[in-house]
Specification:
Elements (H helix, E strand, L loop, with lengths): L26 H4 L25 H13 L21 H7 L2 H4 L11 H18 L3 E3 L5 H18 L8 E5 L5 H8 L3 E5 L9 H7 L4 E6 L12 H10 L3 E6 L11 H4 L3 E4 L1 H4 L14 E3 L11 E5 L2 E5 L16 H37 L19 E4 L1 H7 L3 H9 L7 E2 L8 E4 L7 H20 L1 H5 L12 H4 L9 H6 L8
Parallel strand pairs: 2-3, 2-4, 4-5, 5-6
Antiparallel strand pairs: 1-7, 6-7, 8-9, 10-12, 11-12
Helix pairs in contact: 3-12, 6-7, 12-15
The protein binds pyridoxal-5'-phosphate.
The site of pyridoxal-5'-phosphate has 17 residues, from helix 6.
């Protein structure tokens, strides 16, 4: 195992650094005709904003020190299951940072932004092809935002059919990501949960019993959050369609089937994609990113405005959509994320996308096979079917035999320079530890993860306290998770901090 010590700087906040009059940039050097003078007198601030004043080198050193206390996909494996934290290719960053793009303004006249409109139009066509959908809207800013739009489209459809008052329920499996029931409830529907069967898939008999004239739709991800492909998907689609409902595909797990199978061919009517997962654009903390939504032909009229249309080789925004659910955000989506996706698909091509799926599935099965042999680990639903892009292990035995929980185990993993996997999700697995290696890591890196897991498990049997107090080698030790997320202890601004300096005493 590799030795690892994370930097531990006692770094002040940027507001506490610098000194009066220090400058990193001479504004007037770049803009000799001071642009501030063009702001009308009555709109100018009476006193300058209370911003930190630092030289360039102070700013650089501050942020480099902070970055040394952090972890990223550029540093090593990030096997956070369900989050698909893959490497973000630098070519995509370069494209999105081009001044040609950065200096665009969404209020520019359409005639001056034909290039970016063409890119977005083409991207929506590619995503439609990849998912097997008729049309795609690029507007949503995250997976959960796409889900909410999908639920609004379900509403609009049933309203149009004249039976919204009857269609009050959305079915979700008990393995679903939490955002699925949340989106359904936010859209005004009652959530009906169906259990998984002993192979980890949707229990077909329970689904039949749940589907009725009240069903507006089913939300499903395939492969599901256990990394298992729902092999009965055709029958599932039939049950929901026969009941008059729609099938919604949560595309957060598309990485497993990219270029291999299309949700549209499985019978889904609405699909969201997480570009920030499958298509290698950065994300963290549950977004922000981009969650385009695709639909079948009958639902196209409900997509949000504006739509980008192409007429005689010219592109324009179209707002004239009487059945549309309306606007779901400012302007037209997260354009840098869309550009990175465009570059990602261009650079890989069709075969490259297929290879992404093949390698991520191979890596996940390699880990599943090796990690189930770790002392105290079990692989639920083992032997029923191979995993797709991720696997979920249970640390119940480790907890029962040593008192070390999945949380403690994950904290100790940090001490070896690895990002830990997702824990306690999906909820149907006791002491769940969900590993998603993605395609972006070499075998050596996977082997290092396996060896570290084995060694940490042995530590748990030998000296559980080491794990209960972990991490030891990181910039910040074990945090009080309840306090860290309690609204009364959150210090969200410099002003709040100045008011109560004690709020950050533990930093
Ligand atoms: C299966 C699944 N569905 C939906 C989402 C929601 O996506 P986002 O975080 O972009 O809102 C996630 C995110 O982790 C997910 O894993």
């Amino acid at each position: 195992m590799r030795e690892f010590r994370q930097a531990r700087w006692d770094e002040p906040l940027i507001f506490e650094l610098g000194g009066k009059g220090r400058r990193g940039v001479e504004f007037t050097r770049f803009f000799p005709d001071d642009p501030l003078k063009t702001i009308p007198e009555n709109m100018r601030r009476t006193r300058p904003p209370d911003l930190p004043e630092l030289s360039e080198v102070e700013v650089i050193r501050h942020y480099i020190r902070l970055s040394q206390m952090n972890y990223s996909v550029d540093l090593g494996i990030y096997p956070l299951g369900s989050c698909t934290m893959k490497y973000n290719p630098k070519i995509c960053e370069e494209v999105a940072r081009s001044p040609k793009v950065e200096l665009l303004h969404p209020n520019q006249d359409e005639s001056t932004v034909q290039g970016i409109l063409e890119i977005m139009y083409k991207l929506s066509r590619w995503l439609a092809e990849i998912t097997g959908m008729y049309e795609v809207s690029l507007a949503p800013f995250a997976g959960a935002h796409g889900e909410f739009l999908g639920v609004l489209i379900m509403r609009a459809y049933h309203k149009h059919e004249g039976n919204l008052s009857e269609r009050t329920e959305i079915i979700v499996p008990d393995s679903a990501h939490g955002t699925n029931p949340a989106s359904a409830a936010q859209g005004g529907f009652k959530v009906v949960v169906v259990p998984s069967d002993d192979s980890g898939c949707v229990d077909i008999e329970a689904l039949k019993a749940a589907a009725s004239r009240r069903t507006a739709g089913l939300m499903l991800t395939n492969p599901n959050t256990l990394g298992i492909f729902e092999k009965n998907i055709k029958e599932i689609a039939e049950i929901i369609h026969d009941a008059g409902g729609l099938l919604y595909y949560d595309g957060a797990n598309l990485n497993a089937i990219l270029g291999k199978v299309r949700p549209g061919d499985m019978g889904f009517d609405i699909v969201h994609l997480n570009l920030h997962k499958t298509f290698g654009t950065p994300h963290g903390g549950g977004g922000p990113g981009s969650g385009p939504v695709g639909v079948v032909e009958t639902l196209e009229k409900f997509l949000p405005v504006p739509r980008i249309v192409c007429e005689g080789g010219r592109y324009r925004f179209d707002y004239d959509r009487p059945y549309s659910v309306g606007r779901i955000g400012g302007f037209y989506g997260n354009v840098p994320a869309l550009l990175k996706t465009f570059a990602y698909i261009m650079s890989l091509g069709r075969e490259g996308l297929e290879e992404v799926a093949e390698t991520s599935v191979l890596n996940a099965n390699y880990l599943a096979k090796k990690l189930k042999e770790v002392r105290g680990f079990q692989l639920p639903f083992d032997g029923k079917s191979p995993r797709k892009h991720e696997c979920v292990l249970s640390l119940k035995r480790l907890r029962d035999e040593t008192g070390v929980k999945a949380l403690d185990f994950s904290k100790r993993i940090l001490d070896f320079g690895l990002h830990p996997p997702t824990i306690y999700f999906p909820l149907i697995v006791d002491e769940a530890l969900m590993v998603e290696p993605t395609e972006s890591f070499e075998k050596e890196e996977l082997d290092r993860l396996i060896e570290t897991f084995k060694a940490v498990s042995e530590e748990a049997y030998r000296n559980p306290n080491l794990l209960l107090e972990a991490p030891h080698n990181t910039s910040v030790g074990r945090v009080d998770e309840v306090r860290a997320s309690h609204p009364r202890t959150l210090t969200l601004s410099w002003r709040m901090y100045k008011k109560d300096k004690n709020a950050l005493v533990d930093r």
